[in-house]
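The following block was generated as part of the benchmark described in Methods. Ligand: flavin-adenine dinucleotide.
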Amino acid sequence: MIDSNKINSNNKWKGFKDFLVYKTVKEDEVVTSFYLKSLDGSKLPEFIAGQFITVRIKNEDNTFTKPRQYTLSMNSNEEFYRISVKREENGYLSKKLCDEIKAGDNLQITAPLGNFILKDSEKPLVLIGGGIGITPMLTMAYDAVNSDRKIHFIYSIPNSTHHSFKEETVKLHNNNFKSNVFYTRPKENEKLGKDFDVQGRISEKWMIDNLPKDGDFYFCGPVPFMKTVYHNLISMAIEKENINFEMFEAGVDITKE
Ligand SMILES: Cc1cc2nc3c(=O)[nH]c(=O)nc-3n(C[C@H](O)[C@H](O)[C@H](O)COP(=O)(O)OP(=O)(O)OC[C@H]3O[C@@H](n4cnc5c(N)ncnc54)[C@H](O)[C@@H]3O)c2cc1C
């Protein structure tokens, strides 16, 4: 349910504001979560599941790094925000964040914004995340899990070394919440049915057999993953108005073959 007060909250600040990193959690081999509190102790404005903040770091010479966007990965609360960052080996800010930023450091962030949010609907909700693209799916799942909506939560990763938020998502399970974890490259000791639910990539056949045709679909992940999911949905004759996605990388059109 969209609450316009959350978009136009009075607490929202303009530009960048100093935040304290009060905790970091390594979610898997490449993803670190940063828990952020306002330095001035003020309560945080509510955000809408799926929204992001822009982050930059102050350098020692008082200049700033280039900014990057990170989706909020924990449901909205007044005390803290959480972002979860995938370390890109050749990346500029993600590497710096994951390698150098520790509890007690400061980051500068903007207030949350973004239009990749749940539309008002009672239809079954299908959330499909590939790799770090799981972050908006997670907050959307938190948002919808206490409603009567049926939720299909699909998470595709190579194997357990990239399996972030495992315990957290297990806690979301209830009668309305169905989860399917895909491992594309399971390790020898990882067992189908125990460690993961489906082996391989998300295929059109799997989507036809397992997902509702009358659902609202939201997805995010690496470009090849997004292209596959998008074109599978089109092949399934899902109306474009029910297909929603967020790109983490600029300048790519996934709707083209
Ligand atoms: C709305 C939105 C939400 C987002 N949410 C998240 C999130 O929740 N979590 C998250 O981790 N990311 C998220 N991102 C992506 C994030 O903003 C950054 O783009 C990402 O962290 C990479 O930034 P970077 O500065 O480390 O990499 P950049 O330096 O910007 O590089 C981008 C990519 O190019 C590659 N690259 C860089 N240099 C080279 C080179 N010389 N040769 C070859 N390849 C190279 C890097 O490996 C990287 O994959 C989001 C993006 C958007 C737009």
